[in-house]
Task: structure prediction
Amino acid sequence: MPESGDFSRGGHGPREYGNDFREGLMLIRGHTGPEYRTEIPIRGPDGRIDRKWDYGRVVGGRVKEATETKAGRIKAKDAVPQIVKDRRELRRDPTLVKEWVTVKGARVDKAARDLMQRMAKEFPGRFIITELTKEQRNAAITRAQAERKREQRDVLARQMQRLRLAREREERAKQRERDEREAHVKQRARERLPQIRVIAKANDRGERVRNMGRYLDGATVGRGDVAKRSAAARGEAAERAERERVEREREQQREATDRLAQQAQREREAAANGQVRAMDGREAADLLRVSRPTPGFELPYREPPSAGSTRGGREERERARGIERDRW
Result:
C-alpha cells in the first residue's frame, strides 16, 4: 500500500486512493445505510457550493455528522481553507458534528495541524480528530477494493444471466419452430401412410391373382389332350399376348409401389430430422399408376361361363344329341 503521500503504487492516483480509503472506512464502520451519503455539497454565504464533505449522515435534509478522510499527507494549502469552512458550518449549526480521520505517521503541515488542534478545543465533542494506523488504513483500502471487485463480479453475473436468459428464450423459440415443423412433417407422413398401405395391399392382391392364373392355366392344360391343345392353339397366342401385357402393367405397378414405399421411408426419416420432402413428378406419376385397378384383378370375380360358350359346352351338347338319337 502507498505510504504517506505516495499515491503512485498499485495503479492508484491520489483521488482513487482517497476514495478507496473513504469507501472502505464506511464499510468497516457500517455507515452504509440510506442516510449516509458521499460528496456532500456545502454552500457558502453567496449560495454557491464552496465545499464538499467526503461523507456524512443526513437526517431530514440536514447534515448531522460529517467526516473528512485523509489517507496520506495533509497539505496546508488544501486543508486550511477546508477547516475554515468547517468552522463556519459548525458555528451555523450547533448540532453538527465534524470528524477528521488522519493516518498516524503521515506528514501533516504545521499550519494545518495547529488549526485542527485549535478547532478541537473550540468545538469539543463536535470537531473530532481520529488517528488511524497505517494497517487500519490499508485494511480499509483493501476492503473497498474487494467490495468493488465483488460488485463488478455481480454486475458481470447479472449481465451473463441476462444473456443466458435471452439465449434460452431464443433457443426455446427455435425449438418450438423445430417442433412445429417436425409435427407438420409427421402429420403429412401419417396422412400419406394409409394410402401407401392401400397400395401395398393392392399389390399383394395382384400377386395372389397372378398365382391363381398360373394354377388355372396349368389345370386347363392338364385336362386337355393333344387334339384340344391343337384346337386351342389359335386362341392361346392371343391370350398369351394379353397376359404378357397384363404382366407388364402389373410389374410397372409393383415397381411404382416399391418406389412409393421407399419414398415413405425417406419421408419418415426426413420428418425425424425436421425436414420436409416435396413431392416430385416421379412420385406423382407412381401414385397415379398404383391408384388404377390392378391389371387382371377382376379375373376371380367374373360371372361363370354359360353353356355353349366354351369347348366343354359344345361337347356337352354333342353328347346330349347322341343320347337322343339312340332313343329313337
Remarks:
- Residues 183-301 form one domain.
- The chain is about 65% helix and 10% strand.
